[in-house]
């Protein structure tokens, strides 16, 4: 994935990198995923996927050396091993969801369904978000009421203060 900006069709690539790649990395910690970003918008945003060939006879190595991700074009793609093939995706002018669909299709990955616990947590988060909106509206009303009272007191003080009652 390449580019720091949105010009020349880089928006989908950037959204894929920000939204989808962290989830892919979270659910696939043993799969190396490297991001190499740079400032050259004239280059096409590309995604390289390394897949083991189905007829590979050697077991996959337990660990592979991989460069760290880079924001300044320092993480070059490594050449494939003898038992790997590379799928290159041109992400120019593609929406991030289309890129994800292509990646899932090419890798034959299966999307995970959320567990009952995750569904419950998501429902709790939604409920908290709704309650937070109600609380924000209530607090906004209280702040506005306090500001109105302070403004009224300020106008009363400016008009000469509280009228004193005459002693009779």
TrEMBL record:
Keywords: Mitochondrion, Ribonucleoprotein, Ribosomal protein. It is found in: Mitochondrion. Its main location: mitochondrion. One of its GO terms (cellular component) is ribosome. InterPro entries: Ribosomal_mL43/mS25/NADH_DH, Ribosomal_mS25/mL61, Thioredoxin-like_sf. The keyword Manganese does not apply. Residues 33-85, 142-168 are annotated as: Disordered. Residues 63-76 have a biased composition (Polar residues). Residues 5-110 form the Ribosomal protein/NADH dehydrogenase domain. Residues 142-153 have a biased composition (Basic and acidic residues). One of its GO terms (molecular function) is structural constituent of ribosome. This is Ribosomal protein mrp49. It comes from Fusarium langsethiae.
């Amino acid at each position: 994935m390449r580019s720091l900006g949105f010009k020349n069709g880089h928006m989908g690539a950037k959204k894929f990198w920000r939204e989808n790649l962290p989830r892919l990395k979270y659910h696939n910690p043993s799969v190396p995923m490297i991001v190499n970003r740079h400032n050259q918008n004239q280059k096409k945003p590309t995604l390289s996927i390394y897949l083991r060939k189905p007829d590979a006879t050697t077991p996959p190595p337990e660990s592979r050396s991989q460069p760290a991700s880079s924001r300044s074009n320092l993480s070059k793609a490594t050449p494939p091993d003898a038992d790997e093939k590379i799928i290159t995706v041109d992400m120019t002018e593609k929406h991030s969801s289309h890129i994800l669909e292509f990646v899932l299709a090419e890798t034959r990955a299966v999307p995970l369904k959320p567990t009952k616990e995750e569904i419950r947590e998501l429902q709790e988060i939604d409920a908290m978000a709704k309650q937070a909106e109600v609380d924000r509206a209530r607090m906004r009303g209280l702040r506005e009421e306090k500001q109105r009272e302070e403004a009224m007191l300020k106008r009363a003080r400016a008009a000469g203060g509280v009228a004193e009652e005459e002693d009779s």
